[in-house]
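It would be a great kindness if you could assist me with a short task in structural biology. Thank you for your consideration; the sequence and its tokens are set out here.
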Amino acid sequence: MEPTTAHLLLSPDALPLASTSLPIQLVRHRRAHRYILRVTRHGSVKITLPRWGSKAEAIAFAQRQLPWITTQLQKRANQPLPWSAGTEIWLRGERVTINFDERQIRFGCETILYDGTSDLRSSVLAHLRQLAVTELAPRTFEFAAIHGLKVTRVTIRDQKTRWGSCSRRGAISLNWRLIQVPPSVTDYIIVHELMHLREMNHSARFWKHVESACPEYRDAERWLRKHARQFF
């Protein structure tokens, strides 16, 4: 009979970590050639021991890797929670609820096809990004024409800390998340970037251009200050 490839070594040991401790799961694997460390999705530490390994050496190995373990735990803590039916997201300045069945995902006035197996978050975010591409670029060119400005290119991006940018050559970059904020705020961001084609700074003269093109821009700024953390 083929010998067991791996077996569990029951152990009450735990690794000290800041003000808490992590349970350790020790597993001996006859084909392992070295100690292997993994942080499980449940927040415990799993150590695979080679045939010749010892429990004491395994724990010592894990203790030497505490900085790496801490980093892995922080990454897991920062991972977004999965979306499910009833999850609320922003769409054009309103909180809308996601509902789905085996064929469709619905939120707000949007309906997208769903195969019932793919990740819900990925499907919704991909749709939001496509909406941003479809709506934001034409809106930017429309405002550019209104204000007599030349835009060479509009790119929809996934900026992590800013809503948009403008280059001296007339290239505008907009954050896809602008599809989630109120249309008046989206228009303000577009106007803001366009006005950089007149003043590539944030001087008093620049803000006069912004105010002339978007008199209610202060309301948009207040909305952004209040809600921005929910998008980044």
